[in-house]
Design the sequence.
């Protein structure tokens, strides 16, 4: 919802010190995100900035509220990585991601923002606090995996910590370099490897549509893993059974289905023994 600056005073009421916006006949409590995080002047009150208000309507723990932001840019599918142990105490952040321009962006925890802004119900906050330790312990046992399909029906998982980006490249972007399929990526040459081929599976992906590529980075170098289709990102506890080695760490049951766990480091070493991924030795076709 966008409220022009000249309409702010008439559109927003304050009850008990909490700003409220009347949305379709209902009063919507507001949280000023920039002010709460200490990175922007308040948008309401005497010290308010002279600009329009953009309100993102959110819901957390059964409470609907509005989050005041400076600007709404776009929507984007991303890979969310958990914050390190040193940052676990920041309740308003759920994780981080690497954007298309290489910058790191923090991901907000909607329930944490609601609690920080004082709009979450006391009962919901007490419930979250009561179960926080048990939830943290359960999450610590889980492993975050990116799931994708190779071949006609083979499910493969890769640790989310090994994933730098998810990309799509048109087939027209494919080039040859050093006997290998490559694409130009962020001013560099990105070597590509077909996961289906590496696992000895039939590549059932479309031959005329865009390629789905998982970008793996290590030691400042990157490699693109070509997959048929990205399925999901999950966090599960699992016990893997050893496989035949090679590019696989093992096999496990994920989401009730048998899933191969890819050893992405071993796969990278097979393409480049120094694991630097700088040379473009032949590695087969895509």
Sequence:
């Amino acid at each position: 919802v966008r409220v022009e600056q000249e309409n702010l005073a008439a559109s927003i009421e304050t009850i008990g010190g909490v700003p409220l916006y009347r949305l379709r006949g209902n009063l919507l409590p507001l949280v000023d995100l920039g002010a709460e995080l200490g990175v922007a002047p308040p948008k309401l009150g005497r010290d308010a900035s002279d600009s329009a208000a953009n309100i993102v309507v959110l819901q957390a723990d059964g409470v609907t509220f509005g989050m005041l932001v400076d600007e709404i840019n776009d929507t984007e599918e991303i890979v969310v990585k958990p914050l390190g142990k040193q940052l676990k105490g920041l309740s308003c952040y759920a994780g981080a991601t690497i954007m298309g321009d290489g910058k790191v962006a923090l991901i907000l925890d909607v329930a944490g923002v609601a609690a920080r802004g004082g709009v979450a119900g006391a009962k919901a906050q007490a419930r979250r606090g009561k179960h926080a330790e048990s939830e943290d312990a359960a999450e610590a046992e889980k492993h975050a995996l990116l799931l994708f399909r190779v071949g006609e029906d083979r499910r493969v998982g890769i640790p989310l910590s090994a994933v730098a980006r998810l990309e799509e490249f048109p087939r027209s972007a494919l080039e040859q370099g050093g006997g290998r399929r490559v694409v130009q990526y962020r001013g560099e040459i990105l070597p590509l490897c077909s996961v289906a081929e590496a696992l000895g599976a039939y590549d059932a992906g479309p031959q005329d549509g865009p390629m789905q590529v998982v970008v793996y980075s290590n030691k400042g170098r990157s490699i693109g893993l070509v997959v048929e289709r990205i399925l999901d990102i999950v966090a599960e506890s699992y016990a893997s059974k050893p496989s035949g080695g090679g590019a696989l760490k093992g096999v496990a049951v994920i989401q009730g289905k048998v899933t191969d766990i890819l050893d992405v480091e071993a796969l990278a070493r097979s393409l480049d023994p120094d694991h630097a991924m700088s040379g473009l030795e032949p590695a087969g076709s895509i």
About this structure: Confidence is low (pLDDT under 50) at residues 122-130, 275-286. Residues 122-140 form the longest helix (19 residues).
